[in-house]
Backbone:
């Protein structure tokens, strides 16, 4: 038993390394998603930056306002990949092969999740770097960038929990892929393009209030535009994302248990 | 305990009340080569999956290498190597990477994993393809790599679920040779499932025939042939008329006699001793066959016979 416990970290490292190799050998896993996220940044900045002159923006830079949309969309790609990687393993029989080793069952699920997290942090950092090239100024400074990445990681973990849970339940690539379409309502039924006060439709206001991503946007924008002077939206962001993580990780853990011990 | 397997009254019922395995019992000794022979859907793979900790039995006792499969699945996994019907290969990894990965998960250090991987590639003849992506391998190469992966930790018991299905004869020979070597030279216990009678006949010390979730016969190949098989005496005559006459004269011989045009086949438990009587009867009638030969029973006959009787009587033999 001691051997098993001692090797848990080792198992997780081996599983993660293997997932990272798989990701790197299939650039099509991350390039389209990264391209779309960059596209969001360029197109919305180019097309919509004029509205930052409206009084509701209080003089904020539109680039800083739209950057979180791009980051969140990139994170969804990295996190969704974890679920798709597991589906691929289930499809080609590799999952059974791993189950037949004495590897910790937790490490089997953690490997692709951690690899997905590494992927999304790298993507988010790239997007922020491009933001700087476009003239981004971060009120929260270096610490601010770090906290934004931390929020991204939290959000990615929550979405990975969801995508892994769906993948292990559906056990086929199509369903797992379909599951990621929740991406659209999450990103767009929110304060995506304009602040809450400027949303006209009542239904969209309701949707934005219910959508956890709204709180993530608010937290990131506060850091990027106002810094740490007003901490409440940042704290609220962490609370919402933390709660979401608890829900989706529990969901994926239950699904994993089912997939691992078929009755 | 070594590489023993003990299975007692194992039942597996899937969702929707499908009973895949209906009370199976058997024992396999250390170092034995045992084959589970049966058609598609007989319950072979389900039994393998239960023995290898992949699925849980509905009821019954399974002990592998001395460990209870339900209580100590981790200990069982350390003692067994499993090649499932579908190979378990990540196409994005190279041959050598897959073997190293597998070795690492079995607790090998980085260095010893590399050494073991190279040994195994040599063993299955994939050294030259070590640095190619396994996704680019042919079906036969993938099978060989899959077998190598099951051997990483030198398991005491090897489970092979239809290891040669879909392989060409040359790849099949390679796999057979390696399995035989493991059993004879390293004393590895082998549990093989197959649909091919020839495979079971060639490789196994002992065979259980399984059909519709039940074991219908168990024994060495010779025992099974003696109990369930029949010799076939094959006669050919110049004309159909002669064959008909011969049929009339020999009708009472053996188990049964079949007439097709100018050909006559007599099925009997001991064909050779029956020959003297047969020749005398034909001589009396002035009937002289143009061809005569006796064929010993094949495992095919046994298989057909046993499954037929199971259907007819609903009785299980042991």
Residues:
């Amino acid at each position: 038993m001691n051997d098993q416990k001692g090797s848990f970290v080792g198992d997780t490292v081996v599983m993660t390394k293997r997932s990272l190799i798989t990701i790197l050998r299939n650039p099509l896993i991350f390039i389209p998603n990264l391209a779309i996220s960059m596209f969001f940044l360029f197109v919305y900045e180019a097309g919509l930056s004029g509205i930052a002159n409206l009084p509701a923006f209080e003089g904020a830079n539109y680039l800083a306002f739209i950057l979180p949309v791009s980051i969140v969309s990139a994170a969804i790609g990295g996190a969704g990949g974890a679920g798709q990687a597991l589906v691929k393993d289930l499809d080609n029989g590799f999952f059974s092969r791993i189950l037949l080793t004495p590897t910790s069952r937790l490490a089997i699920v953690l490997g692709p999740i951690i690899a997905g997290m590494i992927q999304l942090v790298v993507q988010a950092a790239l997007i922020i770097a491009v933001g700087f090239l476009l003239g981004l100024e971060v009120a929260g400074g270096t610490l601010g960038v770090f906290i934004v990445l931390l929020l991204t990681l939290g959000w990615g973990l929550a979405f990975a929990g969801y995508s892994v849970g769906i993948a292990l339940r559906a056990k086929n690539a199509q369903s797992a892929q379909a599951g990621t379409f929740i991406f659209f309502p999450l990103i767009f039924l929110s304060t995506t393009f304009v602040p809450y006060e400027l949303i006209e439709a009542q239904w969209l206001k309701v949707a934005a209030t219910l959508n956890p991503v709204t709180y993530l946007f608010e937290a990131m924008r506060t850091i990027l535009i106002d810094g740490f002077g007003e901490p409440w939206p940042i704290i609220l962001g962490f609370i919402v994302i933390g709660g979401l993580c608890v829900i989706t990780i529990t969901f994926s853990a239950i699904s994993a248990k089912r997939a691992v011990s078929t009755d | 305990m070594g590489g023993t397997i003990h299975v007692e009254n194992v039942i597996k019922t899937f969702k929707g009340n499908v009973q895949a395995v209906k009370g199976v019992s058997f024992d396999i000794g250390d170092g034995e080569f045992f084959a589970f022979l049966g058609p598609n859907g007989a319950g072979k793979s389900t039994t393998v999956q239960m023995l290898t900790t992949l699925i849980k039995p509905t009821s019954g006792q399974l002990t592998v290498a001395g460990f209870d499969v339900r209580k100590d699945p981790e200990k069982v996994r350390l003692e067994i190597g499993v090649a499932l019907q579908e190979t378990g290969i990540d196409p994005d990894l190279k041959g050598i990477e897959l073997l190293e990965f597998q070795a690492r998960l079995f607790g090998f250090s980085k260095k010893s994993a590399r050494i073991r991987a190279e040994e195994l590639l040599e063993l299955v003849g994939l050294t030259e393809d070590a640095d190619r992506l396994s996704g680019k391998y042919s079906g036969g190469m993938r099978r060989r790599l899959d077998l190598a992966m099951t051997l990483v930790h030198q398991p005491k018991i090897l489970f092979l679920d239809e290891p040669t299905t879909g392989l060409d004869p040359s790849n099949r020979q390679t796999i057979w040779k390696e399995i035989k070597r493991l059993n004879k030279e390293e004393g590895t216990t082998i549990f093989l499932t197959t649909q091919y009678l020839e495979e079971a006949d060639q490789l196994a010390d002992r065979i259980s025939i399984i059909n519709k979730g039940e074991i219908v016969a168990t024994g060495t190949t010779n025992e099974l042939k003696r109990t369930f098989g029949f010799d076939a005496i094959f006669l050919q005559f110049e004309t159909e008329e002669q064959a008909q006459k011969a049929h009339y004269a020999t009708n009472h011989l053996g188990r049964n006699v079949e007439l097709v045009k100018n050909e006559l086949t007599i099925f009997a438990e001991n064909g050779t001793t029956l020959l003297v009587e047969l020749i005398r009867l034909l001589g009396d009638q002035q009937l002289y066959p143009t061809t005569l030969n006796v064929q010993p029973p094949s495992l095919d006959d046994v298989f057909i016979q046993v499954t037929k009787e199971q259907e007819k009587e609903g009785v299980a033999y042991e």
About this structure: The two ends of chain B are 25 Å apart (CA to CA). The CA atoms of residues 17 and 58 of chain B lie 11 Å apart. The longest strand of chain B covers residues 18-28. Chain B has three domains: 5-89+137-225, 99-131, 230-296.
